[in-house]
Design a protein that fits this description.
mainly beta; disordered N terminus; 1 helix; about 50% strand; 7 strands; (S)-ureidoglycine aminohydrolase cupin domain-containing protein; about 5% helix; seven-stranded antiparallel β-sheet; UGlyAH_Cupin_dom
């Protein structure tokens, strides 16, 4: 999408989705990833959907003090392709995740 900057990219947080919804998505078959508390510079080259088993995260725009999202254990989160941000992890994260493959020509 021409002209789209990371400032328009929004993170979608579904607070505590139902077990049936998680089951439909096949969350338990997705790979797992975790990190300890700290600050992490992240760039999403593909859309990521993740489900936090534990943790607490505040997300800030890259090189900014503007918080754009906050989520934690029990949340289903969709992070858009092209997002550059800082994750401020206050409680260690343990999550299932899946990247959407973009159709490259």
């Amino acid at each position: 999408m021409a002209g789209e900057s990371s400032s328009n990219l929004s993170i979608i947080v579904h607070k505590h989705p139902s077990e049936s919804h998680l089951s439909e998505l096949g969350i338990k078959s997705w790979p797992k990833w975790g990190c300890s508390p700290g600050k992490y510079q992240l760039k999403f080259d593909a859309q990521e959907t993740c489900y936090l088993l534990r943790g607490k995260v505040k997300v800030y725009r890259k090189n900014s003090s503007e918080m754009i999202s906050e989520f934690g254990a029990g949340d289903l989160v969709i992070l858009p392709e092209g997002l550059s941000c800082t994750w401020d992890v206050s409680v260690a994260v343990d999550k299932h995740y899946k990247f959407e493959s973009s159709s490259s020509s």
